[in-house]
Every structure is written in C-alpha cells, then in structure tokens.
Write a structure and sequence with these properties.
It is a single chain. By secondary structure, this protein is α/β, with parallel strands linked by helices. Helices cover 32% and strands 23% of the residues. The chain is built from six helices and ten strands. The chain has an eight-stranded mixed β-sheet, with helices on both faces. The two termini are 27 Å apart. The chain binds NADP nicotinamide-adenine-dinucleotide phosphate. NADP nicotinamide-adenine-dinucleotide phosphate binds next to helix 1, helix 4 and strand 7.
C-alpha cells in the first residue's frame, strides 16, 4: 500500500508515544504529514525534516486553525497528563479535542480519527478518579461524531485497552463495539496502524470500536479487523 493517500494529514499529539507511531506509519505509507506541537524543538528532534511542524497550543483556536489549514485529515492522539491546568483531561481530552474538531471542520478537513479509550461510557470506572478522564473523552467522542458524522465528512474513533510499547502487526486483534470489553492491552503501534488505515478504508468510516491485542501471531495487515466490527 504505497502512495495510497494523496492528502496531507495533521497529527495532534504527535510527540506522544502513540503519536510517534502514527507519524511513523503515515511516513511508511508515504503520506504527507504535518504535526501540531506545543514544543517545536521536541518535534524537530523527533522528526527532523520528515514532517512539517506547526507550533501552537491546543487551547488556542487560532493556532489550531493554522495547523489544520490545507489538511485533508486529522489524527488526534492527544492525551492529558495532569489533574488540572493546561494538560488536564478537561483541557486536553475534552476541550482540546472538541476545538480541534471544530477548527478542522471549518477548514474543510474531511476525516477525523481519534484515539479514545476502553470503558469510556462507564462513569463508575476507577480511571475517572483521574479528573473524570473517561467522561471527558466521552464528551469529546460525542462531539466528533456530531461534527464529523455529517454529510461529506467522516470519523473513526478507536478505543484501545491499556497501551504498551512494541512493534506493530505482531498480534491478532480482538475488536468489539458497544463498550463491552473490560480489560486487555494493545501495542500503541497497532492503534496507530488502525488510525492510519482509517484514512484509506471506506469501511472504517463513521465507526467507533474497542480493540485489544489477542494472541501473538504476525499479521500482514490489520485491514481485516475493520471487516468484523459488530454493528
Ligand atoms: N495509557 C493507556 O494505557 C491508555 C489506554 C487507553 C487510552 N489511552 C489514551 O491514548 C492516548 C495516547 O496515549 P499515549 O500514551 O500515547 O499518550 P502520551 O504519550 O502522553 O502523549 C500525549 C500527547 O498529548 C500531548 N499533550 C498533552 N497535553 C497537551 C497540551 N496541553 N497541549 C498540547 N498537547 C498536549 C502531548 O504533548 P507533549 O509531547 O508536548 O507532552 C503528547 O504529544 C491518550 O489520549 C490516552 O489517554 C491511554
């Protein structure tokens, strides 16, 4: 699958652990990448001149507007890291993602792919002790479905289990819908691959699903898992 997508893709959260894999997999498919980062030096050190870099804050709609301008798709791997302040679930997982979706839609972006989480519909889940992180992600999901579920646009929302490091395509995947899975882990690289595939596959459009790694078994590609998503 070389040269399969002609558009430019903005990656928000590109300097994070999953984001770096998203960039790697986009470049693997020779897809043109722009990253949106609050830290230009960090992005430059990671990606050099293999990507375009736009610096700005996820709190600032003007910065985001500049980042999404001219892009065909956005992949968000943003994630909060503190209880309060500019890296909190409210600021990043909810408001940051919502703002990104709004500015992307305004700029004519056609597809929005988002990393969310298993258990995102479960208000009583212990992870919500971290400043209601799952509730914030749920609000962001709903917003993305509303804005990008409209005619002429599409979304894909991937809800992974616990994230691990490691290469992509080393495991079979278990996918489901309806937030019924309670546990499981998945390599960030596989999540990245699914997000990137969502740009390319019609059957991935307007889907929200959960995913964890199944048994270790090398995979030639992950496209087949979009075929077996329950309605
Ligand atoms: N950990 C798990 O087991 C697990 C399970 C399910 C879902 N998830 C979700 O999966 C996603 C990716 O996880 P990960 O481990 O790859 O996350 P990560 O390494 O912490 O990366 C998060 C990214 O978000 C960016 N970010 C954080 N606060 C920001 C702010 N205020 N403004 C702009 N950017 C900001 C970070 O930028 P900097 O590089 O500048 O810090 C980084 O690029 C997250 O949404 C996470 O909640 C995680």
């Amino acid at each position: 699958m070389n040269n399969v997508y002609q558009g430019k893709v903005l990656v928000a959260g590109a300097t994070g652990k999953t984001g770096q894999w998203v960039v790697k997999r986009l470049l693997h498919y020779r897809i043109s990448v722009r990253v949106f980062s609050r830290d230009k030096d960090k992005a430059l050190a990671m990606f050099g001149d293999s990507v375009e870099i736009v610096t700005g804050k996820i709190q600032n709609a003007v910065d985001i507007g500049q980042a999404v301008k001219g892009c065909d798709a956005v992949i968000s791997t943003l994630g909060s890291s503190s209880y309060s302040g500019e890296s909190s679930p409210a600021d990043v997982d909810r408001d940051g993602v919502k703002r990104l979706a709004d500015e992307a839609a305004k700029a004519g972006v056609k597809h929005f792919a988002l990393i969310s989480s298993l258990a995102v519909t479960k208000w009583y889940h212990p992870l919500n002790l971290f400043a209601g992180v799952l509730l914030k992600k749920w609000e962001a999901e709903e917003h993305v479905r509303k804005v990008f579920g409209q005619e002429g646009r599409s979304y894909t929302i991937v809800r992974p289990g616990g994230l691990k490091d490691g290469e992509p395509l080393l495991h079979k995947l278990h996918v489901d819908t309806g937030d019924r899975l309670w546990n499981g882990f998945i390599n960030r690289a596989d999540v990245a691959e699914l997000l990137v595939l969502s740009l390319l596959l019609e059957k991935a459009k307007n889907k929200t699903f959960e995913v964890v790694n199944d048994i270790q078994e090398p995979q030639t590609n992950l496209e087949q898992y979009y075929d077996v998503l329950p309605e």
